[in-house]
Amino acid sequence: MTNKRNLPVLTDEEMAEKIRKSIENGERRMGIEGGGRESWQRSIIKTFGWRVLAILNSFVVLVSGLSEDALWNAFGMNLTGFILYYFYERVCNQIPYGFEMESEE
After folding, report:
1. How far apart are the C-alpha atoms of 78 and 54, rounded to whole Å?
2. Rounded to whole angstroms, how far apart are CA atoms 39 and 88?
3. In this model, does residue 15 exceed pLDDT 70?
4. Using CA atoms, how far apart are residues 100 and 4, in angstroms rounded to an integer?
């Protein structure tokens, strides 16, 4: 099977086997670092997910009333958003869906 760029793409079983072998070898890389690239579907899903989290983050910061000063609320939203985004990306990188991995032929 190939993608639009005529590059070979692994089946789900082949990808699962590659991930299993890399874990056994102590490797934890996936995605771009692991020799693949993100599909556009994965990017859209991640974007939607992040926007939902960012809106919820803003809502929680504003409703909790950290401060009456808008500048401190903006600072709070950015700080919590920064931390949330770090963990969001870490979780997303553990999900193999949407990676186009080149086969090793």
Report:
1. 10
2. 18
3. yes
4. 11
User: Residues near 1 by Cβ (< 8 Å), separated by ≥ 6?
Assistant: 8, 9, 11
- Whole-angstrom distance, CA of residue 103 vs CA of residue 13: 12
88: pLDDT strictly greater than 70: yes
pTM: 0.61
Q: How far apart are CA 60 and CA 83, in angstroms?
A: 14
Taking the C-alpha atoms of residue 29 and residue 47, their distance in angstroms, rounded to an integer, is 21
Question: How many other C-beta atoms can be found within 10 angstroms of the C-beta atom of residue 32?
Answer: 11
Return the H-helix or E-strand segment holding 99. strand 99-101
Q: How confident is the model at residue 66 (pLDDT cuts 50, 70, 90)?
A: confident
Q: Are 47 and 74 in contact (CB under 8 A)?
A: no
